[in-house]
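Entry for the shared binder. Reason: the reviewer on the internal report wants the predicted structure included alongside the sequence.
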Amino acid sequence: MGIDRIRHEIKMTIRYSHLIAELVKRDLKLKYRRSFLGYFWSLLNPLMMMSVMMVVFSYMFRFDIENYPLYLICGQTLFNCFNESTNKAMYAILDNSSLLKKVYVPKCVFPLARVLSNFATTALSLLAVLIVMIFTRVRFHFSMLLFPVPLVFLLFFASGVGMILSGLAVKFQDITHLYSVFTMILMYATPIFYPVSALPANVARIIKLNPIYTIIYLFRELLLSGHIPSAVNWLYAAGASLLMFMIGALAFDRMRDNFIFYI
């Protein structure tokens, strides 16, 4: 029964794809409406953050990581994309409650639009990654052309988490505070500014179960070393992303009928 409802919701979401596009445009306009730098900030921000973190951590890991600036900005860009996407998706239903009370719209379009709008700004942030690659003189390899694949995995994973959070936040608004603590823990538990080799073997095995780590690992390997990671890593990242998306869709489907009582 739940699967049938999800299939119906997917069909309706596709039918309302024009609305998702408009919501994405609206979110982008609101984000940069009063910003002097505008879209340029999406390029400047990751470079500034990378510079600060590089000064702090490069002395600690300079012997363990080749091309630390690129290593750092790759992990930072993808993790920030996940963090910001899910945080914005968490408020999607609450922020659009007035619209949901007036007209019928597939409710899942709101968290999905929030995730997609953030991925649009991440696309601009990838220019910062390209700049670092140019300045550090990274050699081009054809395997680099696969870099969008880990981003697609991240999109599905973040969409699943975003749908769960957006549903929970309607009834349990404390989740908005708890999630900020969770993402801080997750950031330090994901090798963004340190190498996984710096961890004890038993801890490293646990860290590698984190799908976000695997996605970042794939992205880094394609750009840093220029070789294609093993099929195990690709299958794990793809399976975890699709599973999270399905879990998110099922959870959202179970919660959406009760939204009207809380918004």
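Summary line for the report: The mean pLDDT is 83.
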